[in-house]
Amino acid sequence: MLDSLCFIKESLDSSLAHAIKSRGGVTQICRRVAGASHDFAIRVELEIEGDRIEYEFEIGVEGRGGFVVKQESLTSRAASYRVVQGHVVRALSGSAPPAAPDRLYLAIVAGLPELRGVHEQLVSMGFYNLNPEKMKQPQINDAGQLLHRDGRNIASVFAGLARDRPPTLDRIVRYLGAIIPNVTAVTHASLGAWETLELWQKIEGVEDPLRFYLASTSDGTLRALGALVAVAQRSDTGAPMSLVGVEEPETTLHPVGVGALMKAFREAAAHTQIIITSHSPDLVDRIVDDDRLLVAQSIQGLTFVGVVDRASRDAIETRLYTPGDLLRMDQLCVDRDDLARQQSLTVLGGYRG
Predict the structure, then answer these.
(1) What is the dihedral angle through the alpha carbons of 210, 215, 217, 219, rounded to the nearest 10 degrees?
(2) Which of 123, 144, 170 finishes a domain?
């Protein structure tokens, strides 16, 4: 699910060709099951200032590893268009530019006032699968505006927060101290042309805090720090990120630390939509509202994502089981009515990816 949203961001922010190539080519993206099509489609709905926007596109395989935008459409209160095989069949206005068969039309018309907000919302999403080994390595200084997907430029981003948003940095350090006992500070460290971070930790019996470069820091600590920075940062326009997705931020963390991490996520969710993927019963049990819990389930070789089914909700509401208990028993299931609703949605004239 997260990678489909990331695919939209990369296609609009960089290029469709880059997004496809980075995933091994279009044939690697298409579904590999009986009766599968050589196409794939993505459909999203978003809301901006009360305006409900529907955006969808279908990509098809062409030749040996080639691709084409078979169809694309956008509908909102302010604008509407439809593109088929590189031809605009429902135009925004008489001055709208022509389409291209290998580019998303939204990337072409992003500068138009009526579509600028939609484009900015989709490209200001951020997705993170933090890699502690990359984060441990000293890095060449960069602009530090946005954290890279694997977290490797965290020192540059941290330096930017220290310069531009000290209160945010203070909250990050306080939360890290709640997750990792006795952490009292995190500071930027220059190593010639390279940079890293130092964690300050108070040790019993030692007068001054000990200082550790990231290279000497545990994987769980690095994942927690990266997740805290990811949800607290702002987009390159200075506005809050429209959405932040983090893959399994609780990995190698003590269960007590998971609680503090979730508290930080809930605070950040006041200004940024946050999606977390997890297999951790401890993290799932700390989701306050059941309607914020979605289940990914494999059914006959296909993966579906939907709300929790009625039986599971009843067990949770009556306190018979917690969501984590149901996850441990493999009884946290997708609601079939929700799946039927999803499958009833028309995607690009009937195609469903």
Answers:
(1) 180
(2) 123
Q: What is the pLDDT of residue 35?
A: 57
- pLDDT for 34: 56
User: Please, are residues 347 and 41 in contact by the beta-carbon 8 Å criterion?
Assistant: yes
Type of residue found at 139? Q
Give the distance from CA 242 to its chain's centroid.
10
Same domain, 336 and 272: no
Which structural domain range is residue 314 located in?
289-353
Is the pTM above the cut of 0.70?
yes
Classify residue 175 by burial, with Cβ atoms within 10 Å: 0-12, 13-18, 19+: buried
Residues β-bridged to residue 210: 201
pLDDT less than 70: residues of the chain: 31-37, 93-95, 288-291, 301, 345-353
The string of DSSP codes covering 95-126 is TPPPP-TTS-HHHHSTTSHHHHHHHHHHHTEE
Q: Token pair 């971070």 is at which residue?
A: 197
Query: What's the pLDDT score for residue 240?
Result: 84
